[in-house]
Amino acid sequence: FAVDKVFSLKDLLPLFALAVLLPLTKPPYAVLIGLIFLIPVKKFGSLKRYLLIAFVLIGITGILIWFGSSINREYYYRFVPYPGVNANRQIVYILRHPSGYLKTILRTVSSDFVFISQSYVGILGWLDTNLPQFIYPSYYLVVFFVALTDGHAEIGFSLRQKLILAFIAFGGFFMIATGQYITWTPVGASKINAIQGRYLIPVIPPLILLLYNHRLQIKEFILRYLASIYLGLILATTMVTLFLRYYQL
After folding, report:
1. CA distance 38 to 164
2. Which of 104, 114, 116, 182 is the most exposed place for a label (fewest CB within 10 A)?
3. Is the pLDDT of residue 124 over 60?
């Protein structure tokens, strides 16, 4: 959405840095590299240059994911608290039962929906310190409201770009769920262990951008004012919650 110009090597360096850093931190988040397809081809100068850069970025990401997983797999099992975990056998199980695995994901989301949605906002400590219950629904209402009403005339998403955003968001969730199923869940289990909402923080923004529009708009300073008040309320409430977690008044 910046001024139209052909990308120089300097402009591309941050993308290559992300292609290296994302798979080496949390491999499922490497799906965010796919956001490169939001960028118009004309900014790369030519379709050939565009495809070459995309191929190199995705190639770097894929190689590093394979390299990191092959090293970590050797040392991982001794730290997993669940018996019956075996990454190699779990991958084979998923490939042999793709429809059954999709049902496993849906079953996990259905049964753990409240926990996942609340831990996305925040369950503190060792997942034993909830924030006041009003914060969880109000947070989603505020995010939904801001996403619908914050708009700029010079920014817009085409249908193709929105499809890419949706693919990245749901693809990211699929990668996270699969990572937990492979490395943290017994082979063939009917439910995925240990999916926390905070794992989804990096992949939710593309989903929120699907609500971006030019029809429902509120002046920016009003949104900033209201959002600042709400964030201040959440932070103050969180501080009180943490204090009461350790001290009795």
Report:
1. 7
2. 114
3. yes
